[in-house]
Design goal:
Blueprint (H helix, E strand, L loop, with lengths): L2 H12 L5 H9 L4 E2 L4 E2 L3 H5 L5 E2 L5 H11 L6 E4 L3 H10 L4 E3 L4 E4 L10 E6 L5 H13 L3 E5 L8 H4 L2 H5 L3 E6 L5 H6 L6 E5 L11 H8 L6 E3 L5 H12 L2
Helix pairs in contact: 4-5, 6-11
Amino acid sequence: MNEKDIKELLVNIKENRISLEDGVKAFKELPFKDLGFAKIDNHREIRVGYPEVIYCGGKTVEQVKEIIKFMMTKENNILATRATEEMFDEVRDFCKEAEYDKEAKIIRIMKNTPKVSDSYIAVVAAGTSDISVCEEAAITAETFGNKVERIYDVGVAGIHRLFDKLDIIRGAKVVIVVAGMEGALASVVGGLIDKPIIAVPTSVGYGANFNGLAALLSMLNSCASGVTVVNIDNGFGAGYSASMINKL
């Protein structure tokens, strides 16, 4: 429920289109809805501008299904990250509009069409192996009403590929740079553009990559100014933060 919904509810109560009892019931559930195993934050969009997103990792199929069932009673778009195909199959049984992106591992239910920003976010991937994290970031940003430009496989091992796309990258309001291995791409891009960069280290790489720790430390130690770093493989966090910057 957002501010517009609250105003509409109050007007409906005032004009007797909704009974006082139903209005009280709606306001009782406004802060959160307790499902026993989860407390759904109905108030989040009012506080921070975006509704609650479901992180499916560690949840059972049944828990994800019940959370989505309740969230469908509201008018918000629904985004569920790190979802499995099994979870999606269960959701599709009661919601034919649900979409699933295998690469991003995202379930999405678009109940309304967001106003799309004029400015755009660039999502830049070092290698093809990083695309799953990139797509999590890109789809998150698109769900929140952002235009996204995807620029993939432009890592430092073939840096001429990056230079070929610099005009698109420089035109973005904010840039998400996703890289595994040694994570060097974020520093390179940071030295070439005048826009904020959100760097995402990925767990892609051989043994000494330590499942993304090497890339994370490289990005945190970047000598390029304007580089902010999120957690390993956290495409969602990057997409969310980029959306907030793009909407400023």
